[in-house]
């Protein structure tokens, strides 16, 4: 089977493209919330990789990839909660969520 | 490759792209929710039902709502005068394109001789539960501790502190 047309390669390419989109969002947007959305997209792309490798790998009954994805989702939820809490806290201090206006460490 | 895969991949990627390029933050939150839903459907397509429903519960149910709350609390619905993209947007775009090129090249190059399972894995939710309280019980407890710490930390970070009072 040609590697390019196999289902695993399709899922991996979709995940790679989603990761690149998330990275572009995190690097180019000025709003802190959009940067967090980009990071969430990157985490989701990694999860898609884990599930695809679990599905097409040699030992799916060991559930390794699926467990990794479940724990990754839990950690991503904690990250989102803390990240958005920090954005709200910074907004209260500086009255802006634009990252290039937050240029002081002193509160 | 089935046509269903192409449709779901198109929904996911279009949602992600719209979340990154749209101007208004509320539209971005809506688009990223569409991307999360597309990913959940892709997980269903990969026979990972439990992860798909966990994705719907956690991402669409919790993370998307958190993002909307953060947008409302930071008045993100006002459009900034300087534009939504940073001054160095071109550098970021080049870096993202380079990362995608490297990843795609690696995937295409390395999958030629990999043997691939095509049979549907027979995994019940009962097996996942047994694994979670058996072999993976220590990571499960650590994740529980992490979630507790993150919840307390998020509340403390976002809590309104009055002047002169702790």
Give an overview of the whole structure.
Chain A starts with 6 loop residues before the first helix and ends in a 13-residue tail after the last helix. Chain A has one domain: Helix Hairpins, CATH 1.10.287.3510. Chain A has 107 residues and is mainly α. Chain A has helices spanning 7-28, 32-56, 64-94. Chain A is 73% helix and 0% strand. The mean pLDDT of chain A is 87. Chain B is an all-alpha fold. Chain B folds into 2 domains: 1-83, Four Helix Bundle (Hemerythrin (Met), subunit A), CATH 1.20.120; 124-166. In chain B, 71% of the residues lie in helices and 0% in strands. Chain B contains 6 helices and no strands. In chain B, α1 (3-21) runs antiparallel to α2 (25-45) and α2 packs antiparallel against α3 (49-73). The mean pLDDT of chain B is 87. Chains A and B meet through α1, α2 and α3 of A and α1, α2, α3, α4 and α5 of B.
Biggest beta-sheet profile of chain A: none
One letter per element, helices H and strands E, the order of chain A comes to HHH
User: What is the percentage of strand-forming residues of chain B?
Assistant: under 5%
The whole-angstrom Rg of chain A is 18 Å
Helix and strand layout, with pairings?
The complex is a heterodimer of chains A (107) and B (166).
Chain A lengths: L6 H22 L3 H25 L7 H31 L13
Helix pairs in contact in A: 1-2, 2-3
Chain B lengths: L2 H19 L3 H21 L3 H25 L15 H22 L14 H9 L3 H22 L8
Summarize the structure.
The complex is a heterodimer of chains A (107) and B (166). Chain A is an all-alpha fold and 107 residues long.
Key terms:
heterodimer, A: 107 residues, mainly alpha, Helix Hairpins, 73% helix, B: 166 residues, Four Helix Bundle (Hemerythrin (Met), subunit A), 2 domains
